[in-house]
Amino acid sequence: MKTLALVAVAALSLTACTSQVGGQANPNSAATGSTTAPSSGTASGDNPFAGLSQCAIVDQVLAGEGFPPATPALARSKETCGTQKLASGNTPGIVVGLSLQAGQNYKDNVGNPSQASEGKVNGRPAVEEREPQNSSGQCGVWMEVKPNSRALVLVSASTDTPTACKKVEEVAAKIEPLLPKN
Fold first, then answer.
1. I need a surface site. Which of 40, 52, 159, 169 has the fewest CB within 10 A?
2. What total of structural domains would you count in the chain?
3. Residues 49, 36: contact at Cβ < 8 Å?
4. Which tens digit of pLDDT belongs to each residue from 81-118?
5. Of the candidates 132, 130, 136, which has an alpha carbon nearest to the alpha carbon of residue 160?
6. What is the pLDDT, as a whole number, of residue 15?
7. CA distance 158 to 135
8. How many CB atoms lie within 10 A of CB 17?
9. What is the three-state SS of 75-87?
10. 144 within 8 A of 124, measured Cβ to Cβ
11. In 3D, which of 19, 30, 29 has the Cα closest to residue 114?
C-alpha cells in the first residue's frame, strides 16, 4: 500500500518544524453517527486517545463511500491509520488518513504555514493546511484535543488540492464528534 505509506510519511513530516498560523478554516458539515469501536484501555490525563481505535473511526466516517477497511500506517502504526480508494475511470484515487497524537499541540508542526489557516471544526479549534508537504493534491486538518494533543486528518487526492481540501473538511467534521471532548 504505497499510498498508505504516503499518509504515514505525511504524519511523520509534520513533526519537522513548528509554526503558528492565522486565518479562518470553518468546515461545518454536520456529523453523522457518533459511536466508535474502542480498543482496550481508558482515557487518561496523558493520553486522551487511550481506548480509541483510529482505524475504527476512519471506517465509521467513510462507511458507504467505497473505501476498503482502514489499516495502520507503516510508520507510527500505533497512532496513524488510513485507507485509499483507487482511481476509477476519470475519478482520481483518494487517500484518507487519521493520526491521533498525544502530547502534540494542534498548532505545532505546520509544514507549509503560508497555506494554513486557523478556524474551528464543529466548534473545536483547528488548523487547515493546503499542501502540507508543498505537494499539490494534499490537505490536512489538525484538531485540538486536550490535554495538549491533536487529531490529524490527512487527504491526498492525486494532484487536485481543492478536492483534497473539500474531502478533508468533510471527514474532519465527521471525526470531530468522535474525539474526546476538550
1. 40
2. 1
3. no
4. 999 999 888 888 999 999 999 999 999 888 778 899 99
5. 136
6. 33
7. 10
8. 12
9. CCCCCEEEEEECC
10. yes
11. 19
Report the SS3 class of residue 48.
coil
Residue 101: all three cell numbers together: 497524537
Q: The domain containing residue 151 runs over which residues?
A: 2-178
Closest CA to 173 of 107, 126, 135, 105: 126
Q: What is the pLDDT of residue 92?
A: 81
- Percent residues over pLDDT 70 in the chain: 75
What local confidence, expressed as pLDDT, does residue 113 receive?
84
pLDDT of residue 145: 96
CA 63 – CA 56 distance, rounded (Å): 10
Average pLDDT over residues 160-182: 95
Residue 123 scores a pLDDT above 90 = yes
Contact 49, 95 (CB under 8 A): no
Cell output for 96:
484518507
Give the mean pLDDT of the chain: 79
d(CA 100, CA 153): 9
Stretch (H or E) spanning 141: strand 138-145
Domain of 52, CATH number, reads: 3.40.1000
